[in-house]
C-alpha cells in the first residue's frame, strides 16, 4: 500500500450501516477544536549541535554535513510550497531543527509521496518526512521514529449546505488524495458498507487527486461535496479558508506519524535522540504552535511504535 497515513481501520470491511449511518469512534478533537492559528513568520529556537548525538550518525551522513529529506510538498501545513516556491511546513522546520541538533544542514527535496521510501532504499534520501503514519506493515521495510499524532477528519463547505452526515457518505461526492488511507477507507470500508445497506456508493470510490491542494480546490469549487484528509491538513485548510469550510464530526482513527529511515540504520537512534532533545528544550512545541498543530504533540519519541 502507498497510503500517506496507514493506520488501523475503525470498521471491518462490509460493516453494516446502522440506522442509516456508519458510526465513527472518536479518537481526537471535535469539530470546534482545530488548534491555534498558524503563524509561519514566527521564529523558533536555534538548535545547538549535540556532539553526543552527532556521534551516533552513520559515517557517510556525518561526513556529508547534510541530512537529505524526501517530502511530498503538497500537504499543508506539514509540507508544502509557499508563494515563493520554497518548501515549508511543520515537517520542514522539524527536519531543520533535528539536523541542526546533529550538527548537519537539512536539505529537503520535493518528491512524489510514493517515491520516498524507495528513495531511502536507493540512498537518494537519508530520511522521509512526509506525514507517514507508523505501521507494522511499514516497519517490515523501514524504521519509523515517531514524532506526531494525527487522525482522519472530514470537511464540507461552511454551513454544511448539503446536510452531509460524516458517518454516512453514501452517494456523496468525496474528494481524497490518491494513495492515502482515506482513499483506501472509501474503497475497502465505506463503499462495501453502502452496498450492504442498499445505498448508493461514493462515486468512483472517491474523486482522487494527486495533490492535496487539488482536493481542497475540489471542495472550494463545489466539484465535490466533502473532503477527507489527515486531521492537521483539514484543520489547516479550514483556518485558511476565510470561513468557507468547516469540519463535521470528530477526528477518528488517531495514530503516530514517523520519520522514515533505512531498516536497522543507526540514524534512527540519532534522530530519536535529537527529537527528544527538541522536546525537552521547547523547540518542538514552538514549531507545532507556529503551524497551529500543537494538538498533535506527543511526549516521547520511539522507534517502531506501531500497534497495527
TrEMBL record:
<feature type="signal peptide">
    <location>
        <begin position="1"/>
        <end position="18"/>
    </location>
</feature>
<dbReference type="Pfam" id="PF00497">
    <property type="entry name" value="SBP_bac_3"/>
</dbReference>
<dbReference type="InterPro" id="IPR001638">
    <property type="entry name" value="Solute-binding_3/MltF_N"/>
</dbReference>
<feature type="domain" description="Solute-binding protein family 3/N-terminal">
    <location>
        <begin position="66"/>
        <end position="295"/>
    </location>
</feature>
<protein>
    <submittedName>
        <fullName>ABC transporter substrate-binding protein</fullName>
    </submittedName>
</protein>
<keyword id="KW-0732">Signal</keyword>
Amino acid at each position: 500500500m502507498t497510503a500517506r497515513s496507514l493506520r488501523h481501520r475503525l470498521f471491518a470491511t462490509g460493516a453494516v450501516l446502522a440506522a442509516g449511518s456508519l458510526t465513527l469512534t472518536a479518537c481526537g478533537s471535535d469539530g470546534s477544536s482545530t488548534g491555534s492559528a498558524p503563524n509561519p513568520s514566527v521564529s523558533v529556537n536555534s538548535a545547538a549541535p549535540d556532539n553526543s548525538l552527532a556521534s551516533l550518525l552513520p559515517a557517510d551522513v556525518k561526513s556529508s554535513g547534510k541530512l537529505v529529506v524526501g517530502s511530498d510538498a503538497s500537504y499543508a501545513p506539514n509540507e508544502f510550497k509557499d508563494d515563493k516556491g520554497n518548501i515549508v511546513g511543520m515537517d520542514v522546520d522539524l527536519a531543520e531543527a533535528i539536523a541542526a541538533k546533529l550538527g548537519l544542514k537539512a536539505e529537503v527535496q520535493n518528491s512524489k509521496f510514493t517515491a520516498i521510501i524507495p528513495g531511502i532504499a536507493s540512498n537518494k534520501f537519508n530520511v522521509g518526512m512526509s506525514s507517514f503514519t507508523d505501521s507494522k506493515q511499514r516497519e517490515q521495510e523501514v524504521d519509523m521514529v515517531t514524532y506526531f499524532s494525527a487522525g482522519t477528519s472530514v470537511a464540507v463547505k461552511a454551513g454544511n449546505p448539503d446536510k452531509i452526515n460524516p458517518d454516512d457518505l453514501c452517494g456523496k461526492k468525496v474528494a481524497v488524495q490518491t494513495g492515502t488511507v482515506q482513499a483506501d477507507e472509501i474503497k475497502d470500508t465505506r463503499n462495501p458498507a453502502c452496498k450492504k445497506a442498499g445505498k448508493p456508493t461514493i462515486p468512483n470510490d472517491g474523486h482522487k487527486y494527486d495533490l492535496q491542494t487539488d482536493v481542497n480546490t475540489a471542495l472550494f469549487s463545489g466539484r465535490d461535496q466533502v473532503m477527507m484528509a489527515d486531521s492537521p491538513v483539514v484543520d489547516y485548510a479550514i483556518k485558511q479558508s476565510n470561513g468557507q469550510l468547516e469540519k463535521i464530526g470528530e477526528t477518528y482513527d488517531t495514530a503516530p506519524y514517523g520519520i522514515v529511515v533505512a531498516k536497522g540504520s543507526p540514524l534512527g537512534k540519532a534522530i530519536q535522540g535529537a527529537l527528544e532533545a527538541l522536546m525537552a528544550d521547547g523547540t518542538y512545541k514552538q514549531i507545532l504552535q507556529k503551524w497551529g498543530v500543537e494538538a498533535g504533540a506527543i511526549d516521547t519519541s520511539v522507534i517502531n511504535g506501531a500497534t497495527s
